[in-house]
Please model this.
Amino acid sequence: MIIDIHGHYTTAPAPLGEWRDAQVAALTDPAREPDPAGPAISDDQIRESIEANQLRLMDERGIDVTVFSPRASFMAHHIGDYAASSAWARICNDLCHRVAELYPGRFAPGAMLPQSPGVDPATVIPELERAVVELGAVTVNVNPDPSGGHWTAPPLTDRSWYPVWEKLVELDVPAMVHVSTSCNPAFHTTGAHYLNADTTAFMQLLTGDLFTDFPELRLVIPHGGGAVPYHWGRFRGLAQALGKPEPEESLLRNVFFDTCVYHQPGIDLLLDVIPHANVLFASEMIGAVRGIDPRTGHHFDDTRRYVENTGLSDEDLAAVEERNARRVYPRLDARLTAQGH
Model:
């Protein structure tokens, strides 16, 4: 199988965005408050949004299953308060669950968390548990910067995060470390903030000892790890200067990278530097980069093409495209096994 572990519902029907606009407007004008039950979206609207977009491209590119979570830029945890984020997360998670119910063989649900700046991370646990236990989510997205580009949250190694990590270990689900929209004009959301966050999260983990306390915790750093593979020598040197073990020894039992890197040299470098057991196939389509590369004639985010052009052995290719995902996402593996895969 070809498993894409990084997909977002970027093509959700218009009523979802309209509901969110009303919710945001109601922060200053309570008369605009939308129906707390959420937007009215039919199964046919979901089918139309998926079949013409993600499912069509999955079929064209030979991708069997996508782990599908709410649109990352829509999480926008910096907007409103915890109550707003909680309502928004519930609605978005329910919608991704419905997609997976309509296409059980093609999508597995992921979930966002109701994070909010300055709010105790432990407040996300009820929605985390609901998403996994009731909705069947195989992963959750954890935003290391709910402030939206101002980085007011403590590092992921801070003890305030520990209840979240404890719950993830208990439920045996990994988390993808994924920020949302940047409200800081110095950081473009997808071109800077996303990649900055990937790099920052890795450095936070390198300087801490999180996995000593949580040896079974699994974190996925998306977008190929940001700058991490390109600057692997820098991180090794910093670990040495800080008296830390080599990153391979201290981090790579627990930290994984996806293949959302949109050119061949980048994928080549990722797979040359990072052990193949730590790389999981992903494309994040339809996402931030939707165009066609005029140099190749193919979509930038057609990452399967790059991975299969790296010269990996059949065994390593199968690990990257399927087996690593089933190992890191045991609830996904159980779901696929139950389907006969």
Observations:
- The longest helix spans residues 82-102.
- The mean pLDDT is 97.
- The radius of gyration is 19 Å.
